[in-house]
Amino acid sequence: MTQIRTVGVVGAGTMGSGIAQKMAMEGVGVVLVDQGAAYLEKARKAIEGLLEEGQKRRVLRPEEARATLKRMKFTTDLAELKDVDLVIEAIFEDEKAKKELFSRLDAVVGPDALFASNTSSLSVAELARSTRRPSRFLGMHFFFHPVKNRLVEVIPIAGTDPAALAAVLALARATGKTPIEVKDCPGFAVNRFFVPWLNEAARMLEDKTAGMATIDAAAERAFGISMGPFALMNATGVPIACHA
Q1: Known catalytic residue: 145?
Q2: CA dihedral (123, 128, 134, 140) positive or negative
C-alpha cells in the first residue's frame, strides 16, 4: 500500500469522533463505527457543532463543512469496514476489550488493511498479538482535541513493515498532523513528561497549595494552554490518567 485513501474509526467518543472528523475535513473517506446508535448520533451532533463553530470563526466555508459530512459514514456494523485502507481503534483504554476488537476486525477487514490503536498507555506490541497481521499494526496516539491538536505519536513495533509505517506517517502529514515516530515503551514520548505534570498538580491539591480551579487557571496562563491538568483529566478520563 502506497497511499491511504479510506479510514475506519472504531469508537465514537470524543477522541474517535474527533479523529474521524479531522480525517474527513482533509479529504479522506471515513467510516465511523460504534456499537451504540445513540453514541453515533451524539458524535454526529458534536461534529456538526464543531463544523458550525469553524464556519462562525471563518476558518471553514459552508461548502467545506458539507463536504466533510458527505465523506463520513456512521454505522453500528463492523462489516462496513471491509474495504477501508486503515482502521484506527479508539475505544476505551482496556487491553482485553481492545484485543477482542482487533480479533474481530481481523475477520472483517481486508488482509492488506493496516491496523492502528489510539492507545495512550498500553503496549502496542501486546495489542498486535491479537491479530494475524502484526507487520501491519502500529500505534497512532492522538491528543485532545484531535480536530485542533496537531500532534500524533506514531508507534511502530519491532515487526511493523516499513511501508506500513511510511503510509501512516504520510497520512498524518496529509491530514494536517505533526507526526513523531516513537518507540513502543511505557509512556511513549509525550506521557514521559506529561504524566509527571498531572501528578504534580494532584500533589499540589493534596498539599492544599491551591484548589483545582486555581491550579488549572495558573497552568493555562503559565503554559499558554486551553485546559489545565484537572480539566484535561476530566475530559480524557481519570482512570486513563491513573493507569498512565
Answers
A1: no
A2: negative
191 is catalytic: yes
Catalytic residue, chosen from 121, 191, 200, 243, is: 191
Please write the tens of the pLDDT for every residue from 171-208: 999 999 999 999 999 999 999 988 999 999 999 999 99
Q: Given the DSSP bridges, would you call strands 151-156 and 137-142 parallel, antiparallel or unpaired? A: antiparallel
For the question of residue 243 being annotated catalytic, the response is no
> CA separation (Å) from 22 to 26, 42, 69?
6, 17, 11
pLDDT tens digits, one per residue of 24-56: 999 999 999 999 999 999 999 999 999 999 999
Nearest to 141 by CA among 205, 185, 190: 190
Dist CA 71 CA 6 (whole Å): 10
Active site residue 200: no
pTM of the model: 0.93
Q: How far apart are CA 176 and CA 25, in angstroms?
A: 10
